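Notes, Module 5: Reading structure tokens.

Key idea: the token line is not a picture. It is a compressed description, and you learn to read it the same way you learned to read a sequence, by spotting repeated patterns. We will look at two proteins. The first is printed below with its tokens.
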Amino acid sequence: MSDAYIVEAVRTPTGRRGGGLSQVHPADLGAAAISALLKRSGVDPSAVEDVIFGNLDSVGPHAGDIARTCWLAAGLPEAVPGVTVDRQCGSGQQAVSFAAMGVMAGVQDLVVAGGVQNMSMVPIGSSMTASAPMGLPGPFNDSPGWVERYGTQEVSQFRGAEMVAEKWDLSRSDMEDYALESHRRAVQAIDEGRFDAEIEPLAGVTCDEGPRRDTSLAKMQSLPPLREGGRVTAAVSSQISDGAAALLIASEQALRRHGLEPRARIHHMSVRGDDPIYMLTGPIPATAHALERTGMSIDDFDLFECNEAFASVPMAWMSEHDVPHSKVNVNGGAIALGHPLGCSGAKLMTTLLHELERSGGRWGLQTMCEGGGQANVTIIERL
């Protein structure tokens, strides 16, 4: 079985809702990341065997197999196909896993994997509401099988975030402290140019638009909770964002054939499920599973990326696995940098790779909570 290698990884800046990327068609947003990837790697586009992209809410400009549309919008060969993946917020990470699986199985040698999302243009949850005018049922409470198992209780990330905060006894103040640190780290990373190598400017946007230099605990404390009497506010939640990211995944044979230099090896990838009502706890059992499968321990890792869908998610995960915050989301997370849903998994992996190179680390672990109570884990080894 061949190893799967990351040859190149690049992303667009992450635009804030209504910001500099909000009017860029998602196909062109993804095309920009793919074009930059191929230019940086120098690989012949016709040698690519598939394009696998993550995307949620695949309606309107996101519809029609956007992985394929992005490739074609970039003016690239029609012979190269594309497929779109939806594992909710982990879709971009799952796209990389599927690409690596194809390479490791010997079925493919060179695959582009990534994700794209324009949340300004296609609001979150659009795929769940688009069918209502047609009189079609919803995904949960109209299913007799679902209702028999889970009842008709609310299924939402906002409820899940609140439930996690309550279960792990995370106060609003604790989460605000965490959120403020996310912004501080992100601003520092931008000022130090830590993202410069991984970002390809687009539409006049050269850096991530989300981090707030002027935020403070006082400003966070002034916001109302998302639910009456709750602990979770917008300040401790990920930002609605626009962006795309792409990685080139190659086999050993492709490295030799095309004269490519690998930057990292994909050491492990897995996905696990957990309670779909809590929804956001998946990274906890998924990480335990990955550590068991690999025989590695938390101490083996130099860096972690745990997606900040809400502050309660990485905080509970760090608590359960005794992960030091000093190694987690060291350049800030989605609370500050944004969470362009289907793109985020590929975006975080791009950042993880570049930060391992910048800091001289060897091992990185990435995990994300996902709708349905799922979570991906990917372990990479910098070469």
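Here is the second protein, with the sequence above and the tokens below, as before.
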Amino acid sequence: MWRADATCTRPDTSQGPAATVNITRDQLAQAVRALCADFGHDYWQRADEARAYPHEFVDALTDAGYLACLIPQEFGGLGLGVREACVILEEINRSGANSAACHAQMYTMGTLLRHGSEELKARYLPSIAAGDLCLQAFAVTEPDAGSDTTRIRTFAERKGDSYVVTGQKVFISRVRQSDLMILLARTTPIDEVEKRTAGLSVFIVDLREAGDSVRVNPIDTMINHESCEVFFDGLEVPAANRIGEEGRGFRYIMSGMNAERILLASESIGDGLYFVDRASDYASARKVFDREIGTNQGVQFPIADAYMDVRAAAAIRDEAAREYDGGEVRGEGPNMAKYLASRAAWKAANVAMDTFGGWGMATEYGVERKFREARLYLVAPVANNLVLSHVATHVLGMPRSF
């Protein structure tokens, strides 16, 4: 169980592979906070306006080892748990930064780590941990399938020692910054399998070798998120790059969703606390009619209410993270954490906007940028309505609604 006085141990490569550094949870949070302080509002505003990828920030996180926190020490990572990863992502977003620029580097490798062969793990994980290879692209979603992953059409046909991939993916973030991609594709047509979740396989694709067989089109969105359409036209992937057994990819992909939802809940909690911090500070300083606006209950009560919602979501997140690190595989906690945290963050975002009034719309304060970013997690990477369906069906035992 993670405690405030617990220590994390990570390799210190400058001292040799056996050297370690101990750090408490509070020290970890302070260290992340200090790093983020070097990338303030002006940095993120410039990146947002230019739709530029924040390379300097990502490089700093990589150099500090934070993006390799979930990779075992034997492969050069920090060897920490989801609970510690939650601390990192929460602090990043609470600082006003945006973890979405790099969070996938932290957890996308989980599919490879849990289900890949020893040869694949030895080939890729040390370079991912060192930051020499970027693995952020996670290619699952397709235009026609939507949330029904079993209906994807991208197909990987076995031809000798390779698979040939043809199809299309959409909303694949940071593929232009990635050297590697985790790809889910059909290897057996859906009308030839007994269960629609069968016949799906997972591959690790080396984009550096893809050439013209992979085409990427950026999607212009309301936030600086590096989302793209990806087209595969005869992409050859070595059979040795298949992760796990052929046809069992749906299970492999789903096994990583719980960690992802806990971690993204942490980002929303960080966002929620950012909005509460900004709103309470502004309400305490801003004077109208010769007194601070925070003396008005109509201003202070919504801020306090939003704060309590964020704290409640954090409690569910903490429970889900403890259970996950303890080996729990159910989706109840992770799904509820993602749902509650995204709603709490969005509530806090609106409260901050109300508190700042017209100035909330001004880019100089940063609230409007974070407001746009916070909206994403109500619908992605899983729509909150699907979370409601999951809880209704799998937790409360009600009949499926679809």
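Summary for the second protein:
- Residues 1-20 have pLDDT under 50 and may be disordered.
- The domain at 7-130 is CATH 1.10.540.10 (Butyryl-Coa Dehydrogenase, subunit A; domain 1).
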